[in-house]
C-alpha cells in the first residue's frame, strides 16, 4: 500500500457549516463578531493569508478588517496600537500577521495581545494552557492537523509520529496538542533544521506531518509504506508554460 495523503478541504467545509450556525446564533443574541488582522509592512506570504482570512470570514458571517501599518513603525507605536484594539469592545478577535519587520520584537508584541482576543493562541498564557490540556482554542494550523487526524478514525496510541518543523505556530504546539491525552497519545519526534538524518526519521513514521516551506523536501522514497502524510507547508513554486 502506498503512502496516504489526507485532504483537509472536505473536513474544513464540514466544520465551517457548524461554525456558521454558531455565529448565526450569537448574532441573534446580539453578539456580532469582528476579526481584526494587523499587517505591518509588505509581505507576499502574509497577503495570501489575509486573502484567505477575509474569504473565510465572509463565508462564516464574521465581520473582517485589515489594519495596515507602515514597516517603519516603532515597537512602542505597535504596542500602543495593539492595546487600542484590546480596548475596542467591537473587536472580538485579533490576528497579528507574521513575520514582523526585523527591527520589531515579535515576542514582546505577542505578550501585549489580549489572551481573550488572541484567536491564534500565540499569547504565552494561551500557549501555556496547551501544556496542561486546558486550552480553549488552538493555534489554527496545529489544531487543524489534530482534527484531520481525528477524522481518520484511527487509534493514535503509540504510533510513530514525525513532525518536520518546530515553529512556534505549528510544530511546537502541535507536538503538545498530540501529547495531551495521557493514555492515547502517539510517540512524537520533532525534526528541524539541525536534524542530521531526516530520511531516517521519516521512513519510520506511521504519521508524517510536514510543516516547513521547502518544496520537495520529502521524496517518495522517504516515506514508510502505508503512512499517513499531512503537508501544511506553503511553498512558492514556479509554474512552467
Write down the domain tally.
Answer: 2
What would the CATH topology of the largest domain be?
Rossmann fold
CATH architecture of the largest domain: 3-Layer(aba) Sandwich
In CATH, the homologous superfamily of the largest domain goes by the name NAD(P)-binding Rossmann-like Domain
**Assembly form of the protein:** single chain
Name the shape in a single word. globular
- Rg measurement, Å: 19 Å
* Helix and strand composition category: alpha/beta
From the N-terminal CA to the C-terminal CA, the straight-line distance is 34 Å
Count, helices: 8
**Mean pLDDT reading:** 91
Q: Tell me what portion of residues adopts beta-strand conformation.
A: 15-25%
Catalogue the unreliable spans.
none
- The residue fraction in helices comes out at 25-40%
CATH class of the largest domain: Alpha Beta
Strand order of the largest sheet: 1-8-7-5-6
How do the helices and strands follow one another from N- to C-terminus? EHEHEHEHHHEHEHEE
Write a brief caption for the model.
By secondary structure, this protein is an alpha/beta fold.
Report on this model:
This protein has 241 residues and is of the alpha/beta class. It contains eight helices and eight strands. The strands form two sheets. The chain has a five-stranded parallel sheet. Strands 3-2-4 form a three-stranded parallel sheet, with helices on one face. α6 packs across α7. The chain is globular, with a radius of gyration of 19 Å. The mean pLDDT is 91.
